């Protein structure tokens, strides 16, 4: 399914591809987050918008070991997904056709056990996670039960909202619990792209995170402070009377040129707690892997919703326990890998963020 030529040549997924399919219960939009360290920024943007993560682990000899090693990406991706608020997880143990012997039950069980131990450390409950032996290349256990894994009795997940079981990846996707969508909150819609469509005009595209957007609403875009009327809203090429949280939509706006709007801007309802830009804000930051010490003045690029902006660590306010959030130290001199801290951040250009408690998708 890797679409782009460059991806085909390198054999990896580069940008966040959005493609859709239907299960018996859901429309599923797949955000194909890359599995190669150079592309981690795309992965962060994609992951923070997901309801469930499907972590694909390669079962091939040596390949699994590389991914799960201290420097490996399997660990980093699981930790990132959990840290970014993706609380549901499915594990696809892929390339089962290239184990020794092919479709080896002991290899599947060894990998499931080791990944289970690791994701538990990260914060997931392995009992609530489906582990599915698959071959993406040949299609084993993707949509239909494979005769190559006759030994596989199926996956079982236990959770307080109800248990589920099945044999395929498709069934595992069907067992995802849809999150409660915040329709009652004011509108927040971070822009992913802005298109100019002949005969229609300017069409910003993005996912409704909170609230409702519909024709006739006077939207305010932040941080540019442009206000305009929504003429129409559409999804899956169909016109909508309203769009709700979770919907990926395009909406046509009056009298605004494509040049005035950018990815990372946020649309809200001008009459109901519209979004604002922040001159500075405090954030809890976890240092995942960084070669040295981080001091005040450090200026990394921050990915929040669809915004991608350099922000300066103006001051390190406190060091905290990354699991509980309890304060460990006031005004630390520096932080390093493995630390969590509350930091005052100053964006290098106007940036729209919200508190995590009010608008989680715009606060992580």
UniProtKB/TrEMBL annotation:
The keyword Transmembrane does not apply. Transmembrane segments: none annotated. The keyword GTP-binding applies. SUPFAM superfamilies: EF-Tu/eEF-1alpha/eIF2-gamma C-terminal domain (SSF50465), P-loop containing nucleoside triphosphate hydrolases (SSF52540), Translation proteins (SSF50447). GO terms for cellular component: cytoplasm. Residues 1-183 form the Tr-type G domain. It is found in: Cytoplasm. Belongs to the TRAFAC class translation factor GTPase superfamily. Classic translation factor GTPase family. EF-Tu/EF-1A subfamily. This protein promotes the GTP-dependent binding of aminoacyl-tRNA to the A-site of ribosomes during protein biosynthesis. This is Elongation factor 1-alpha. It comes from Chaetopleura apiculata (Common eastern chiton). The lineage of its organism: Eukaryota, Metazoa, Spiralia, Lophotrochozoa, Mollusca.
